[in-house]
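Hello everyone,

My group is preparing for a crystallization screen and wants a predicted model to guide construct design. The compound we'll soak is magnesium ion. Before spending weeks at the bench, it would help to have a computed complex in hand. I've included the protein sequence and the ligand's SMILES below. Output in structure-token form would be ideal because that's what our pipeline reads.
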Amino acid sequence: MENQPQIELRNVTHAYVTDTGPLPVLDNLSLAVDTGKFTAVVGPSGCGKSTLTRLIAGLMTPDQGEVSLSGKPVRSPRSTVGMAFQNPVLLEWRNILDNVLLPLEIVNNNLQQKQREDRAFELLSLVGLEGFEDKRPSELSGGMRQRASLCRALVHRPEVLILDEPFGALDAFTREDLWQIMHELRREEQFTCLLITHDLRESVFLADQVVVLSGRPATSQYVLNVDLGDRRSLEDLYTKESVEMLAVLRQQIQIAQGRHVALEEKA
Ligand SMILES: Nc1ncnc2c1ncn2[C@@H]1O[C@H](COP(=O)(O)OP(=O)(O)O)[C@@H](O)[C@H]1O
Ligand SMILES: [Mg+2]
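Reply:
Good plan to model first. Here are the tokens for the complex, ready for your pipeline.
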């Protein structure tokens, strides 16, 4: 039992019930993320990536197959999970500090108010938001709001962090800042991460493993191990090794989109 992956999906198949009949979204999908590791999931738009995060978060259960965290089947939401999305969904009537503190008001813990605040301050300073604790969300830039959202996702020290395209709406420079902050958070905090992204460079920069999903209904089409070490800089994305990895991923995405054959025929 010792080497159990922290996040595991085994042969997961799921369809949504719609007015026009069942919509198969996931097909026999298996993937595993070991404790402390970082997996990025990429795949065509609408292939089932957000569905995958909802299953891991226990917001839904699959028609077939099993989702487990630390070897225990997921049947409902767990407090050992933290989540962040493309839209940071901060509450405007709370300041940044109180937004970050929110999970500690909900999740069972025996922390005193002072301890909770110390924890929130620690995270806010780690992501460069020291001094913004009293601001309202609307007073912050998009990148800063997303940093606050990451703090809120981590404040209760979750074992598992699920990120669904958290940097997708940010401009390129802000996005790269956030990538560096993710590395910083990984060095300072302990969590196992599953990141959904449509940015292949982001997946290579951040992850230990990149899973490419096929088109809908999605299955695991290709798995790439990224051996770039723990200390990564943006320049690492331009090495021969990285350029080759990105080319492989781009080709896999084309296959997933069903465009591969068409492109080859054209060449
Ligand atoms: N609650 C739902 N009911 C019916 N169809 C849904 C529901 N949620 C998502 N879908 C459909 O399932 C497919 C996969 O959705 P999603 O997991 O959000 O994809 P992705 O995140 O990869 O873009 C899409 O076609 C979407 O329209
Ligand atoms: Mg999605």
